Amino acid sequence: MGICWTCFSSSSSSSSSPHNPTSATTTTTTGALSAGQILPTDTLRIFTFVELKAATRNFRPDTVLGEGGFGKVYKGWLDEKANSKNGTIIAVKKLNSESVQGIEEWQSEVTFLGRLSHPNLVKLLGYCLEETELLLVYEFMQKGSLENHLFGRGSSVQPLLWDIRLKIAIGAARGLAFLHTSEKVIYRDFKASNILLDGSYNAKISDFGLAKLGPSASQSHVTTRVMGTYGYAAPEYVATGHLYVKSDVYGFGVVLVEMLTAQRALDPTRPSAQLNLTDWVKPYLHDRRKLKSIMDSRLEGKYPSKAAFRIAQLALKCLAPEHKQRPSMNEVLESLERIEAANKDPKLQSNRTVATRHVHHRSPLHPNQEGR
Ligand SMILES: Nc1ncnc2c1ncn2[C@@H]1O[C@H](COP(=O)(O)OP(=O)(O)O)[C@@H](O)[C@H]1O
Ligand SMILES: [Mg+2]
């Protein structure tokens, strides 16, 4: 859940509804991306409200998995009796009647997520639309959101190991690259709470409420009212409402920094100079020694410092103030894959060994977090 805002500056000058797909599969070339598909629109199941009420035990508070700007998300059991271990587990997102979001965001999820299929996009199983009730039904993602793993507290939240962080970054990059190359979809709300993890920590992008069809070939951007989440949104978008495909790349850079530091993109509980994560830590990302001082203390120094530095460099590129200076998501994905490959090469493991000697390294940026 982030702090979402709406600024009714200028309204959209381009169509917000996606064009009809002309082919059944995408034309992307790399193996990772061709795993995606554009589905016919009739694959979604229509649920009744009564069915979803039963599946979630009348939306019982103890089935709540999370909450965002649209509403609460509940865990549910389909078909079989509630409590049965054999039932299909689902996640049901229900519009909160007090939310500023509504039919537009619901429609966007159905239109985009209902038609795009990729291993790194969460699967939308169906929906319910009855009078004022708007609900969406997704596959259940066992390990919840990346946000919860990075910032959650309590004994059930285990810190993510370095290799898992890299795997998550690669999965999320694949999902975003697929969106950008399949139908030029701009996701618009890339953040840790919208990256979900399955039982094996495969990352899947969810929450397509703000997704938008990208510009036509003759245009560089779409103009839209500014919506998104403070701390993640690209500066050109916040300033002008001009949304570029590379506005998403900026958000990806913010998440990379969150994964390195386990600090939130925006945190009002930090001193004011540190309120915005990227403004605060940018100078640290340029320097390998300085970087060490802002790394997540819960990694306990168990990460290859060379790889961490390369990720920091990549994050800086994604965070370039000028959208044109940012890499494409395909380029980001390639860089991450190269970093992972080097990580797996035993000849390049020496850095990691050195890093593990610094167990209990205490970062000056986590002054009160010993024993976290
Ligand atoms: N399919 C799912 N499986 C498990 N948890 C989910 C699922 N979908 C959402 N959640 C949880 O609910 C939170 C809010 O979901 P999200 O779709 O982002 O809602 P919103 O559109 O209101 O922002 C997520 O951050 C996550 O913790
Ligand atoms: Mg969300």
TrEMBL record:
Keywords assigned: ATP-binding, Cell membrane, Kinase, Membrane, Nucleotide-binding, Serine/threonine-protein kinase, Transferase
Intracellular or extracellular location(s): Cell membrane
Chain spans, region Disordered: 9-30, 341-372
Residues holding ATP: K94
Residue ranges constituting the Protein kinase domain according to the UniProt record: 59-348
Gene Ontology CC, one term: plasma membrane
Enzymatic class: transferase
Cross-referenced PROSITE patterns: PROTEIN_KINASE_ATP, PROTEIN_KINASE_DOM, PROTEIN_KINASE_ST
Ranges of Basic residues composition bias in the record: 355-364
Enzyme Commission numbers on file: 2.7.11.1
GO molecular-function terms, A-Z: ATP binding; protein serine/threonine kinase activity
First-listed, main subcellular location of the protein, grouped into a coarse class: membrane
Matches recorded under SUPFAM superfamilies: Protein kinase-like (PK-like)
Lineage top rank: taxon: Eukaryota
CDD domains assigned to the protein according to its UniProt record, in alphabetical order: STKc_IRAK
Cross-referenced PANTHER family: OS01G0588500 PROTEIN-RELATED
Function according to Swiss-Prot or TrEMBL: May be involved in plant defense signaling.
Family: Belongs to the protein kinase superfamily. Ser/Thr protein kinase family.
Protein name: non-specific serine/threonine protein kinase
Protein source organism: Lupinus angustifolius
